[in-house]
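Reading a protein record of the kind used here takes only a little practice. The record below shows the convention in full:
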Amino acid sequence: MKSKALIGGAFGALLCLAAGPAAADAGFDFAKTKGCTACHDVTKKVIGPPYAEVAKKYKGQADAQDKLVGSILKGSSGKWGAIPMPPNKVTDEDAKKLAAWVLSL
């Protein structure tokens, strides 16, 4: 299970690196369709932390994608301040795509 997550995260990161800004834009556009951009932006704080800060916080952690997928699907609180993140109504696959994109930033 962990190896699949690592491979998926690495694959997502490689796609973004290979495609450059276009992949970053595609990832942001995907996040927008899921409602994520109501609370998050890539570089500036909105309600939640910027995606770039999330990527920086989890950089190098082997279980980073699993942690982010869990937060996306179940919500979280206390990681980034007093405002909790509610669970998001996305599929497991969409949560994995979103997490891989965030970690690629």
Remarks:
- DSSP finds five helices and no strands in the chain.
- The first helix runs from residue 2 to 19.
- The helical segments are 2-19, 21-33, 51-58, 64-74, 92-104.
